[in-house]
UniProtKB/TrEMBL annotation:
SUPFAM superfamilies: LanC-like. Zn(2+) binds at C284, C333, H334. Pfam families: LANC_like (PF05147). GO terms for molecular function: metal ion binding. CDD domains: LanC. Transmembrane segments: none annotated. This is Lanthionine synthetase C-like protein.
């Protein structure tokens, strides 16, 4: 590795600075702190769970953080979503239980009941919306707040349950076109801006491509499910429909294929969208997340051409100085940690030559998180110093989890990143 230390040492150093959930230097009084997987306690608890599973730190630390996460009322139902409240806490507890079978069974049973009920409510509302020929909100279907994120959890905990099948039947229907005002739009087209709010810059709404808030998330989930052997009518066709949409909007640049973060109504009508090589290739939006989603889709569809194209797209993006220059932070969501983690996951399912190349890039990407040759404790201190964001998506815990997952110390069967839809399929692939 180009790092002066093994990447798991950075994960350990971060965790050692995040030992106590009641540390006054942390944002413990913020209302999101206890229940936010994105920002707060659950994300940090997840780091301690994975380090304990790897035998690098004691389980008592993980239990301490999990106790903090579950120490008060848990938000469920309409006010919860995959990264806040019941589904967020359940994801972390499920990860702990996977490593320590039998633990947290009672808490998980209660959370599973609440999540299943919420899934039924969400699916019913989504079908009613489609029946009324209205456009969806991003939060209806996306990975962060919507049914894709809920489905990712159900795939792990209740793969044979009726709620998961209902989620997939809805996602299949989501890929069928809508015809508002006589114009043909993809079924996931939303009438709002990417923020979810009305915005004059998005007249007529937009079609979102990203993993976090766009159609790549549903595609990745449908593909992962197919690779687990969970398939409903129309599922593979839905994956193909999304692939065709991404093919339509791909731009082949000198730096490799790039996809726009979203398509506006004027761009749709013109059948053209200019994509700049200066956009970052992140997990949430950009080539890295889309490459992983398309790799999973290709595996589900048994499409070797698409598989090679997806793998190649990531290799090009990680070699393109223009795209890398747009990556300016260490985070898992849209920084170097996310790029390293996705390169590691894609390599595990890539053909040998591409896999070897991607594995060689991982330490170089991690090296961007801290000064070359720095003590991992120094790098960890710099990450944790941003105490307003210590959690999973944009904070130190996420960076540490990515570093751990890329190391030889990681637990091979770990699915901590199932909430990101980057996790391994059920069976080894060749």
């Amino acid at each position: 590795m180009s790092l002066a230390y093994e990447s798991h040492e950075l994960a350990v150093a971060v965790a050692d600075l995040l030992t106590h959930p009641n540390d006054p230097s942390l944002p413990i009084h913020q209302p999101w702190w206890r229940q936010s997987l994105a920002l707060g306690v659950p994300g940090i608890a997840l780091l301690h769970v994975e380090l304990a599973a790897a035998g690098l730190r004691p389980w008592q630390r993980a239990h301490h953080w999990l106790a903090a996460a579950t120490s008060g009322p848990v938000t469920a139902g309409a006010d919860s979503h995959p990264f806040h409240g019941a589904p967020a806490l359940a994801h972390v507890l499920a990860c702990a239980a996977a490593h320590q079978p039998g633990t947290y069974a009672r808490a998980l049973d209660g959370l599973d009941t609440a999540i299943a009920a919420d899934a039924r409510r969400r699916v019913h509302a989504a079908h009613a919306r489609i029946d009324a020929r209205k456009l969806p909100a991003l939060a209806e279907f996306d990975a962060i707040r919507g049914l894709t994120g809920v489905g990712a959890y159900l795939l792990r905990r209740a793969p044979d349950g009726p709620e998961l099948r209902a989620v997939f039947q809805y996602l299949v229907r989501l890929t069928q076109p809508l015809h508002p005002d006589g114009e043909v739009l993809p079924g996931w087209w939303t009438g709002s801006s990417p923020s979810g709010r009305a915005d004059a810059r998005f007249p007529g709404g937009h079609g979102n491509s990203g993993m976090a808030h766009g159609i790549a998330g549903p595609m990745a989930l449908l593909a992962l499910a197919a690779l687990h052997g969970v398939v409903v009518d129309g599922q593979l066709t839905a994956i193909s429909t999304i692939c065709a949409w991404l093919d339509r909007w791909r731009s082949d640049t000198d730096g490799g294929p790039i996809w726009p973060y979203w398509i506006t109504r004027p761009q749709l009508r013109a059948d053209h969208a200019q994509v700049l090589r200066t956009q970052r290739p992140s997990w949430c939006y950009g080539t890295a997340g889309l490459a992983r989603a398309q790799q999973l889709a290709a595996l589900a569809l048994n499409d070797p051409v698409r598989r090679a194209a997806a793998d190649g797209a990531l290799v090009c993006a990680l070699a393109d100085l223009h795209q890398l220059a747009a990556t300016t932070d260490p985070s898992l969501c849209h920084g170097y940690a996310g790029l390293a983690h996705i390169a590691h996951r894609v390599a595990a399912d890539a053909l040998p030559d591409v896999a070897e190349h991607l594995r060689a890039l991982v330490p170089r990407l991690l090296d961007q998180i801290g000064p070359s040759g720095a003590d991992p404790r120094r790098t960890a201190a710099a990450l944790v110093s941003d105490a307003a964001r210590p959690g999973l998506l944009e904070g130190a815990a996420g960076v540490a989890l990515a570093a751990l997952s890329c190391s030889t110390a990681a637990t091979a069967s770990s699915s901590w990143d199932a909430c990101l839809l980057t996790n391994r399929p059920a069976h080894p692939l060749t």
